[in-house]
Amino acid sequence: MKTFTAPERLDEALTLLGEASPPTVLAGGTDLWPQWTATKTKPTHVLSLHRLEELRGITRAGDILRLGACVTHSELTRSPLVQAACPALAAAAATVGATQIQNRGTLGGNLANGSPAADLPPPLFTANAEVELHSRRGARRVPITRLYRGYRDLERERDELLVAVHIPALPSGALERFWKVGTRRAQAISKVVGACRLALDEKGTISHAALAFGSVGPVTMALDELASWLVGKEPTPEVGEKAAQLASDAVQPMDDIRSTADYRRHVVGRIVKAWIVELATLNR
Amino acid sequence: MIGDNKRRKDAHDKMDGSLRYTADVDYPGLWHAATVRAPLAHGRLRGIRQGGNIDWSKLIFATAADIPGTKNVRMIAQDMPFLADDLVRYKGEPVAVVAAPTRAEAQMACRAVEVEMEPLEAILTLDEIVAKHQRGDPDLEVLSQWSFGHGDVEAALESADIVVEGAYTTPHQEQAYLETNAMTAIPEDDGGVCVEGSLQCPYYVAPAVAAMLDVGLDKLHVRALPMGGAFGGKEDFPSVLGGHVALLAQKAGRPVRIVLDRSEDIAYSTKRHPAWMHIRTGAAKDGTLIAADIDIVFDGGAYATMSPVVLSRGAIHAPGPYRWPVVQVRAVAYRTHTPPNGAFRGFGVPQTAYAIESHMDRLAQVCEVEPHTFRLNNRLRIGDRTGTSQVLKDSVASEEVLKHTMEVTDFARKWRKWGIKGTDKHDLGAPARGVGLSFFWHGAGFTGAGEARIAARVALDLVQGGRVRIRVSSTEMGQGAHTVLPQIVANALGVPHSQVSVDPVDTRFVPDSGPTVASRTTMIVGGELEGCALDARAWLLQSTADKLQRAPETLSVVEGRLRGGKEDLGSFATHLQAALGDNELKTFERQHALAPHLQWDEASHTGDAYATYTWGCCVAEVLIHRDTYEVEVPRLTMVVDVGRIINPKLAKGQVEGGTLQALGYALCEEVGVGEDGALLRDSFQTYILPTTLDAPEIEVHMLEKPYTRGPGGAKGLGEMPMNGAAPALANAVEHALGVRVTDLPLSPEKIFAACSAARAGRSS
């Protein structure tokens, strides 16, 4: 590492990112540092975000929760605002790495690293969150469901910085769940990770459905067709079983170092079934 | 003293961080080494070119051509080169070593070396060798083989009412010590070399490195530094690294150190042998055992190294602690083109114990006898004959261990209530619940004539001032040897534990007590030290008695004071001073000899395989998620007999640690071999060790069946806790779900696949 820059103002950071060879962006460092160790390489210029106030803080305005990109997993887990507006996100953050990792690792880093096994994207997908990208050219918002174009390929230009995430709060009466199957009970990378937001109307039929899974394809996958199919149906065990089948068919898992495609398909289906069964209990 | 929870002598320095490990010790002018590794799993070296933008004149570079003496590492088998010369037999095999002022420079230089190879066909996996073994393919290279047994197994199986056959496989396992392998070589003023580091067996390293340098043992000594764990992983491998740094240090004329990083350590140091075990057994209708025929294949890796002895121990324990009227065992280790497999706590037994104990549950099921009753009925007893035709004469705790286990775990009731066929009503929303049992044994000390060959020597110094110093080559690797050995000596001598210490382990100053392996340190080395201490005590009492003109048998040493009956005659130190006169110290030495009644024929593997055995029983309780097949283990109970316990707290720690290590082996640890022959999971991100949250409550019960020749009655302890959990967990999973996974680890993926196959079988 030849240069380490830690600006206090966002425009300084954006100026650096606009240069011909932009620096490597460092947030918590929990992904970058192991990569540097493994490859025995270090970038020539690192831009650290740790002094940028705009990237911090958890605030709520109306039905929208704003999370700075440098909010840590620990902050996500402990925040009453997050627990209320997106409980699945708070639950997801609590399963990432060890306590030390949760204290350093950030929301923005987890999203920008682009791992298909990342734990935070599924609850953000099902909450229909948006990410706020800034560059010298201006700011724009991208729905998180459009953030990932392909394997570790993000809808983010080289000069853009992920500054914040905006999350529509969970409507009252709706069900939000997070489920992770890891390689062990702590400090585990996901074999399957998923989240859902489901709601019933007064007749007891499904009025809203959003489901998303990670670690089962090249990118986090929103199960939109399944969601559309579910809307208007009653959460009966039969619907649950059919939904499980549709979910298993929709994902694109593979055999890898952590698990098998067959197992992942099966588990995705069982998780969806369990959610539908739980949803039915909201009727009572 | 024996039976007291003495605090570990290394506890303070470990707690406050002042203990210095190999990588912490500084030397002026120290350089750092790194390794150039072969790019292919099998082939001939065609060229090693020092390329890149490197000023090679400023570095030290060495290949096999630079080795002045023996090119192969002296181990049990002597077939592995320090540095590959012509033939490369695994991906990552060292072909050259580099020393540079910093580690980064050494590593950068290594990356600049181009290694050219002409590829040869490689055999990489256990599956491949088993397939060839079953076909009788002559391509397979045998690294070691043993066969033994008694009786006509085919005729016996023919006569049996019930015959059950099965095959079981186990994977590589990484020792996962906290401190990675690290060695330093320091040239000394007299022209000699000191090799120090994280190593279990100084007298393995010393002759291996001396032969490589072509110097006498007077010019080479080895120091064992404090270790952050070893588990067998630092038994044979330090000889390789010691050779590398000694070669570089001699060439450089300065100290050179190598410290492996974690991924290098996992990828290239020794692992537990992957194994395949095929078992055919016969029993009478009432469940009485008739015969066992056991075929064992071990994946030896690229070189034989320790495989002959690991395979031997695994095979001897393969029939389990049962009375077989007829038994035949054939075991073979074949070469694969992967890093050599070597020593790991349990030394071949965790593999065969998993196989036989999984199999015994199946056999019991077919015989319609409950698993605990089946084991109790068929257990080995005093007077019974083992697979090697050893007749058991004493310290057989099979019945006590089994019965105590039934009592403390309430196994029978749980087994009848839980499980897929249990009487409890099954709520499909709740996890599937099961309980499993395993029964196992472990031979203490070296196999067969091993202890006679080693003839362990120990020394005890009584020093002016009253200090008592132990000189042995047994190392402290975290297991507590340097606390327990002083307890044995202090107990026999009659002095406080604080007065006894173990000298730094340096081959220049300590005799060869043999390697720190095979659960032999407390029993064998401790036994000889107890003898020394009794000799020392007798000498002191005689000398004091002479001076006081009393009969020596009227005197005693109690808590560091000499006593004549109830009369206090003064401190141990005072009387020692009188006895020593002008001498600074008096040394007592002993050498181990095998008990004369023990007979062993190595070639036929017949006779007394071990002087004594330890006995154990494990009960595992599992909860299996019905959707994800994740296995939760709320409780593991271990009931063990390891003879007299010297230090209960340390002994319990050993049992708990070994049990957790076995749980990892059973449920999640897997290295895997890639298509190119590289070991796949080479970091703690991908090689899944159990965490605190994965650890069950481990309940330990210790029975003490004394062994007459062990110190205070102690037997071996270190390895046997590794044998029990894997088969107990496999049996518990089968009990819960009705499917048997015959291939470790018992991953959710495999349990799911087995359940799917069972469902498909039922519906077709």
Produce the secondary structure layout.
The complex is a heterodimer of chains A (284) and B (764).
Chain A: E1 3-5, H1 10-17, E2 24-26, H2 32-39, E3 45-48, E4 58-61, E5 64-68, H3 73-78, H4 80-85, H5 87-93, H6 99-104, H7 107-112, H8 121-126, E6 130-135, E7 138-143, E8 148-150, E9 153-154, E10 161-168, E11 175-182, E12 190-200, E13 206-214, E14 221-222, H9 224-230, H10 237-250, H11 261-281
Parallel strand pairs in A: 1-3, 2-3
Antiparallel strand pairs in A: 4-5, 5-10, 6-7, 6-10, 8-9, 11-12, 12-13, 13-14
Helix pairs in contact in A: 10-11
Chain B: H1 11-15, E1 31-37, E2 43-50, E3 60-63, E4 87-88, E5 94-100, H2 103-111, E6 113-119, H3 126-135, E7 142-150, H4 153-159, E8 162-170, E9 182-187, E10 193-197, H5 202-213, E11 220-224, H6 237-252, E12 256-259, H7 262-268, E13 275-283, E14 289-301, H8 307-317, E15 326-335, H9 349-367, H10 371-378, H11 398-409, H12 411-417, E16 432-443, H13 450-454, E17 457-463, E18 467-471, H14 481-493, E19 500-502, H15 521-548, E20 555-558, E21 561-564, E22 567-571, H16 572-580, E23 585-591, E24 600-601, E25 606-607, E26 613-624, E27 631-641, H17 648-667, E28 697-703, H18 725-737, H19 748-763
Parallel strand pairs in B: 1-12, 10-11, 14-15, 18-19, 27-28
Antiparallel strand pairs in B: 1-5, 2-4, 2-6, 3-5, 7-15, 8-13, 9-10, 9-12, 13-14, 16-26, 17-18, 17-23, 20-21, 21-22, 24-25, 26-27
Helix pairs in contact in B: 5-6, 8-9, 9-18, 14-15, 17-18
